[in-house]
Write a structure and sequence with these properties.
about 220 residues; Immunoglobulin-like; 5-stranded mixed sheet; 1 helix; about 40% strand
């Protein structure tokens, strides 16, 4: 009886110190675009590091689903804290709580990937001269629908299958659908005006006052268009 009791006590002590190992997939995404090669430093405590590198600056992230990706190495514990960084630049400027399978953003915030995440490359706001190619991707194997005429996309809209080529200023509206979950996003790409073309909202600097009608030299005049 005493022998059995000792076995039970030993079992309970072992269970009390049980740690969680990454036998299944444990990972995070990072959708920031400011880093050329982000890295991950993750840990449970000062003595328990969760990266393959085991020394700062940690593991390189890799590209997956249009974002940066890091997976907890096999045999490592699931982290409690994480730093996503490039050199001394940390997202959010500090250590972050590790949230399994979440998507981290440049400002250090995060989002639950239960909804499809849309990524456009290049990002919205780019200015082009002649033509511009945009590729789209979405997590959760979502189907991507889009419009370029300003209307709101639905599941009856065009289905994205290959890079979109724009030759004029375009507002691209995108809908990603995975089962009963969907996400919408809007992107804008502007064509550079032709030389001499006046664009509403810009300023035009003239030589009107280089020489005034009375022969006196003056300054240039800026006209709001």
């Amino acid at each position: 009886m005493k022998f059995f009791t000792k076995i039970c006590v030993a079992f309970l002590l072992a269970m009390s110190t049980l740690t969680v190992y990454a036998e299944a997939e444990h990972y995070v995404y990072f959708d920031g675009t400011e880093f050329t090669q982000p890295q991950v430093w993750a840990w449970v405590s000062d003595k328990v590091n969760c990266t393959t590198a085991t020394a700062w600056p940690g593991d390189n992230m890799v590209k997956k689903d249009g974002m940066w990706y890091w997976e907890v190495p096999a045999g490592k514990q699931v982290p409690l804290e994480i730093i996503i960084h490039e050199g001394d630049n940390k997202i959010g400027g500090d250590d972050l709580e590790y949230k399994d399978k979440f998507i981290y953003h440049q400002d250090g915030s995060d989002s639950d990937p239960a909804l499809p995440i849309i990524t456009a490359s290049p990002a919205s706001g780019n200015i082009f001269k002649d033509e511009f190619a945009v590729t789209l991707s979405a997590t959760l194997d979502a189907t991507i629908y889009y419009t370029t005429d300003g209307s709101t996309p639905t599941t009856s809209s065009s289905v994205y299958t290959e890079a979109l080529i724009f030759t004029e200023t375009t507002t691209l509206k995108v809908l990603a659908v995975s089962g009963d979950k969907q996400t919408a996003q809007t992107y804008t790409y502007n064509k550079m005006p032709e030389p001499g073309e006046v664009v509403s909202g810009q300023n035009l600097t003239t030589k009107y006052y280089t020489i005034n009608p009375n022969g006196q030299k003056g300054t240039r005049k800026t006209i709001d268009m």
